[in-house]
Amino acid sequence: MMNLARQLRHASNLNSFLEGVLGMFRPGGPEFALRHVVIKRLPLDHLTFRGGSKNVVLLLDRSLALEKEITLPVAVRNKAYDAIGLKLKTTLPMQGRALRWTHLRVPSEGNFDTYQVLIYKQEFLDAVIEQARQAGIKPRRISVEGAETPLWDSEPKSQGNKRFWAGASFLLITILATGHAIFLGMRMSGLEHELEARQSRIAALQSRIEDAQSRMGERNAHEDIVNDQIRKFNAQSRPLTLLSAMGRDLPEGVWLSELSVLSDSIRLSGFSTADVMSVIRSLQALDWVSDVRLEGPVSEESHTGQKRFDLRLRYLPNGYDR
């Protein structure tokens, strides 16, 4: 298994290396330095090509184009040219067969990209190419400054040139690949020892991680037990806390004859020398009480003048926690 993984890794490295070398060569040979010439109008001014070269890129001014703005999802960014083409074919006359376009991506945020699409007539491009050739120029391509794709690109016509560079590329790639394989073979032994040492360290670290996870699980279980005990204690001591609070917070001239602690409220009965509504207001003002209501009528003792009342007092979700 280790040998297979190593072979796959070496194959991947070799593939990346060869791709880098292949990128040095174009099908028709290397592309020498290009000269860029800006075209702003037709007919072409011959002074534009003074001191010119055969390796010329003609850059069309954006003012010569019909501009459209198109929005596409970010997911199709690598296929933006094709996606733009599909959209244009549904909106342009004759599905855009007599037109050529290129695009520039406008910086934007989010899940959509915005593109400036520059559209030119094919007959205009043909005229540019013809006038350039009449001036003794063989344009390599026609584009717009900053555009992601050219409007027109010439291809090398010399088959002998193609064969020469193809043969040279193959020979150079063969030499470099052979040297790379020899270099990998020299390093293989050292890499095997290094891999074994790293695997040993990884196994030791994995063992320590498992021990730490086991101890953490035991500690979490103990904390759960303690927290459960605390919750039970708080639930059992809650009625005592509320009774103590009632004795501390009742207004003067009020005493209770009966008190019941329910899950979310306290039901109490008692007597007051003051008006019962003032008792309700005093209880309602307590910071741990949410609502106070009468349950039944208020009666008055004939021989003492005291008011007898029945109240239900609802407390806040956390109850009395002072």
TrEMBL record:
Transmembrane feature ranges: 164-186
A Pfam family that the UniProt record links to this protein: PilN
Superkingdom of this protein's organism: Bacteria
Keywords: Coiled coil, Membrane, Transmembrane, Transmembrane helix
Coiled coil: 188-215
Protein name per the record: PilN domain-containing protein
The species this protein was found in: Roseinatronobacter alkalisoli
